[in-house]
Design brief:
alpha/beta; TIM Barrel; eight-stranded parallel barrel; two-stranded antiparallel ribbon; binds nicotinamide-adenine-dinucleotide
């Protein structure tokens, strides 16, 4: 496993990392036992960065992850969780106030069975008033950092321009990393245009969703996936082409995302221990350049087409 530094944080992170959203049952039902085994397998196989949120499964992902973490030495992993996006009783909710952020961090630590969070993020800023993030959420997280409860502070979201908006308006060093998703995968590499900006500002770069939240898998995207029918259709064509060539599209997609050394890490999610082992193997194997070129050609009509977060 290759490890890369996350901006100026000093965190040396595996280039493939574990996203715990699926522990909340967001893609399909899960066996808790298998989910816990998947976390243990990931860490035993060299993954040292785990990302979660109170939003995933409306706290379930943090609860299941907390059970898994109980049995892992604390110096074996860095944990990243978030504030701002929540849900209860089947209803999504958002609260980016400083007060809620502080309470949320305490609640996450309880669910995760830990007393320190390595990276705390503002979750999906597109649902916030960005000026509230600048004036309230981030200052609250900085206070937690001063108190030693969190190590580093980051921001996440889908529209890339929001990262720049916020970083341009806060004191240097406030935002230590960004977490972008579905913008550095086979169908969309828009994150590439922002790398130089983040590097100039000393901001670490985390990429999530190399399989485009399931679009680039043989199983296909979950029903809630916000992509247009056109994106779905072209993604399906790419999946079928790889099937014809007897090459897993997931392998092509994971390698594509981890290959860029300017991106510290790529978060992939699964509740299958066999999948995580395979994903790590694929991250380490050479890329199939010929097939990559052919698949990028198939996906060209929807290149960088995106959607609204929901
Ligand atoms: P992903 O691209 O990792 O896709 C997950 C899907 O791929 C699941 O259905 C999983 O079962 C499937 N999969 C994984 N490995 C597979 C394999 N070997 N073979 C076949 N199918 C496989 O998308 P994601 O879950 O959205 O992103 C990963 C993580 O990134 C999340 O868990 C989360 O931690 C983070 N993330 C954060 C944000 C945010 O902060 N706003 C947004 C998206 C993702």
């Amino acid at each position: 496993m290759e490890y890369r530094l996350l901006g100026n944080t000093g965190l040396n992170i595996s280039c493939l990392s574990f996203g715990a959203s699926s522990l909340g049952g967001v893609f399909h039902d899960l066996s808790e036992k298998e989910g816990i085994l998947t976390v243990h397998t990931a860490v035993d196989s060299g993954i040292n960065f785990i990302d979660v949120s109170p939003y995933y499964g409306f706290t379930r992902a943090e609860i299941v992850l907390g059970k898994a973490l109980k049995e892992i030495r604390r110096d074996k992993y860095y944990i990243s969780t978030k504030v701002g996006r929540f849900g209860t009783d089947g209803k999504k909710s958002w609260d980016y106030s400083g007060e809620r952020a502080i309470k949320s961090v305490e609640e996450s630590m309880q669910r995760l069975n830990i007393d320190f969070i390595d990276l705390i993020n503002v979750h999906d800023m597109e649902f916030s008033d960005l000026n509230q993030v600048i004036n309230e959420t981030l200052p609250a997280l900085l206070r937690l950092k001063e108190q030693g409860k969190v190590g580093h502070v980051g921001i996440t979201g889908l529209p890339l321009e929001n990262f720049k908006y916020v970083i341009d308006r806060v004191p240097a060093g406030t935002v230590e990393s960004i977490l972008s998703f579905c913008h550095y995968c086979l169908n969309d590499d828009a994150l590439a245009d922002y790398l130089a900006y983040f590097e100039e500002h000393g901001v670490g770069i985390i990429n999530a969703s190399p399989l485009s939240m399931g679009l680039l898998t043989r199983r296909g995207a979950p029903a809630w996936h916000p992509a247009s029918q056109e994106i779905m259709n072209y993604s399906r064509k790419a999946v079928e082409y790889c099937e014809q060539k007897k090459y897993p599209i997931e392998q092509l997609a994971i390698k594509y995302s981890v290959m860029n050394p300017r991106i510290t890490t790529t978060l992939v999610s699964t509740t299958s221990s066999a999948n995580i082992v395979e994903n790590i193997r694929w991250a380490e194997a050479p890329q199939n350049e010929q097939l990559l070129a052919e698949v990028l050609e198939i996906l060209k009509p929807i290149h960088r087409q995106t959607w609204e977060n929901s």
